[in-house]
């Protein structure tokens, strides 16, 4: 487990907000096969509610990437949602989490099972997840599965 994932899983509990700002943290130019998108509180823009992370090939149980979501807040049934799409917009995987400092990690599907090819452009999206299942304040970024 990378130190980034370890730090993410031990995130501190903070204030609560349902709707707010979101930012995408750009990866360095040489590391286009990973991304982190953090969701921030509307009431306190310095408070991160949680985030989603994507690591490209060769991470994950199918050696084709991994998606993780982290919910930093003890705010009831709100959570964090993440999705990965192939270059043509085809949905590959989704993962979500709800609850106090909870996390959820999944392996991206193998190419033979509908996952992205090595070197393929992908879109990674992260949203706030409301109690009734609505996704709000979604942010996305494009990367390369390499």
UniProtKB/TrEMBL annotation:
Segment forming the signal sequence: 1-29
Keyword field contains Signal: yes
Tagged with keyword Signal: yes
Keywords: Signal
Lineage: superkingdom: Bacteria
This protein's name: Secreted protein
Organism listed in the record: Actinomadura decatromicini
Native organism taxonomy: Bacteria, Bacillati, Actinomycetota, Actinomycetes, Streptosporangiales
